[in-house]
Amino acid sequence: MKNWFLILCVFSIWSCNTPESNVQPNERSDRTKLMISNMKLARDPHTWSKPNQARVVHLDWNAKVDFTTKTIQAVATYDIDNITDTSAIVLDAKGLRISSVQVDGKEVAYQLSEEKQFIGSALSIPIDSASKKISIAYATTDAAEALLWVDGEHPFLFTQSQAILGRTWIPCQDSPGVRITYNATVEVPSDLMALMSAENPTVKSADGKYTFKMDQPIPAYLIALAVGDIAFKPIGATTGVYAQPDVIDLAASEFSEMQQMVDAAEKLYGDYVWGRYDVLVLPAAFPFGGMENPKLTFATPTILAGDKSLVSLVAHELAHSWSGNLVTNATWNDFWLNEGFTVYFEQRIMEAVYGRERSEMLAQLARQDLDATLLELKEADMNADTRLKLALEERSPDDGMTDIAYNKGYFFLRLIEETTGREKFDAFLKEYFTSHAFQVMETESFLAYLRKNLLTPEQESAINVQDWVYGEGIPSNIPIVNTQKFILVDNVRTNWEAGKIQANNIGWAKWSYQERVHFVSNLSPAIHAGKMQELDDAFEISSTGNNEVLFVWLLKAIDRKYTPAYGKLREFLVTVGRRKFVKPLYEELVRTDQTAIAQKIYQVARPHYHAVTVGSVDALLASTSKSN
Ligand code: BES
Ligand code: ZN
């Protein structure tokens, strides 16, 4: 396996069109880029494109964002590399209205295949060996699942392309292995600002026109756009925050330690190569906690707790600047290479900046989430999805986005660290990121690299690498996390549950959010609505500003039918679109025979959600979705 990967790299470098000796010195960096872009890629079941035959290498995107029709009209012009002198280049497109296609300035007859579930249509454009540029004029439609248009006094638009929604707003080779650089000009209403995963403005332009440049090659799932009434505040020398004016100050104080995080990350695993690191706080409808768009993380406002308690999300998205954005999963079957590594790196940043106790509490919460996910997948008869290496052919890549990739991945890497010692593992990881920068990684090539550069055969079998990666469930040698603080919380909880202490003596006020989450999520089934009321009276949990605490509290409220919290539940579901919160709350309502309540809330909430969240909740509340 080791040799196979090496041979592949060497072969793909040889197979470039010009021999290295003919290259002028000033062309060399372009040649390096081309060599990277020419690397033979693994088969990806979620793309129509055939990047080993003909590949896009650079995008010039000219777009106009129209809030009245809720469409983007654009021309996407790509520089292409016809690697095997093939007669057509294939791109992914889904729900786009294409008006014309040109090759080197001449209109051509293109083909758009029938739309296939999940992956959309193949856009085939005729080319020959001399073709240099293809140009597609198109508009987005209501079927653009990546886009969410948020109404309001100042409207807002944002994109969320991962995993395979980039193709719903830009025709592209939408496979994580295909990297492109891009330039863009974007025109928006003149009272709004536009931002991309690129070099960004910090003030609004007078005419609503913005230009963007992304000089480092990135996969299509990392192309992003946001348009809105957005302000900027610097944090450190190379860090800052963007948000709507009403939250910009809160956001800037919440993320005031961002520069320390970047410094800590660089100290661990090498230079941050993307120039600036900024965070954009989006409207509450954003379907994820965060998205690692290069140079500009997109984040949910639900992490603005007012006490910096939820900043591990920033550490996570920052860590993706190495794991994911520099070394990228080859296909969505290798998703754990993006997320497991990122959770591990996130934890190391948290430990470096805030200390081991805080990162250990996070690790223990991660373990609890992992156990819950394992149980759920088992009950749903989906044990195959508990493998790190996934098999998502003919399925939505979304199916693989579970705690397995994140937390089983994390514990696997932690076990390797504990086996080899931290010093060796850190040196290994640093070299791994550096030597594979701007490349893709498959699970198999990672394992080969791991064997070659870190693990002895004895260590490999002690860890039981094969079982961790290809086996179901979790091996028994999973590292144990036990934090003193949680043990104390458990003691207090059992004493209160047994009536030995009063709610007022619980010590809640002094607890971190992690301790509070641990307390609430482990409440005994014997604690009914009346006892929940006692806690609520003492600590006003139903109106906490910490959304992680609120979320576990609302789950318990649903289960115990603690109706005083239902007003808050409704408000939360109608304003927040973050799938990690929204989906389990509806599921809990359905599981506890409160489907009518779920449907009533969903009817109001659904128009505010992004397609990613709608997709998950529709599947659960099918009858409601039909009436919408
Ligand atoms: N890249 C992911 C989000 C994602 C994954 C979007 C797959 C679409 C498909 C991002 O880095 C992430 O993991 N976000 C988490 C937060 C994190 C702290 C675990 C989230 O959104 O909850
Ligand atoms: Zn992530």
Shape: globular
Q: What is the domain tally?
A: 5
What share of residues is helical? 25-40%
**Which small-molecule species are bound to the chains here?**
ligand BES, zinc ion
**How many helical elements?**
21
What does this structure look like?
- This protein has 628 residues and is of the alpha+beta class.
- It has 5 domains: 4-37, no CATH class; 46-229, tricorn interacting facor f3 domain (Immunoglobulin-like); 234-280 and 288-321, 2-Layer Sandwich (Zincin-like), CATH 3.30.2010; 327-470, Neutral Protease Domain 2 (Neutral Protease, domain 2), CATH 1.10.390.10; 485-627, Peptidase M1, leukotriene A4 hydrolase/aminopeptidase C-terminal domain (Serine Threonine Protein Phosphatase 5, Tetratricopeptide repeat).
- Helix content is 39%, strand content 19%.
- It has 21 helices and 21 strands.
- Strands 5-4-8-2-1-11-13 form a 7-stranded mixed beta sheet. A 5-stranded mixed beta sheet has the order 15-16-17-19-18.
- Strand 15 and strand 16 (239-243) form a beta hairpin.
- Helix 7 crosses helix 8, helix 16 packs parallel to helix 18 (579-591) and helix 17 (566-575) runs parallel beside helix 19 (595-605).
- Mean pLDDT is 94; it is low at 1-28 and 624-628.
- The structure holds ligand BES and zinc ion (ZN).
- Zinc ion (ZN) is lined by residues 316, 320, 339, 342.
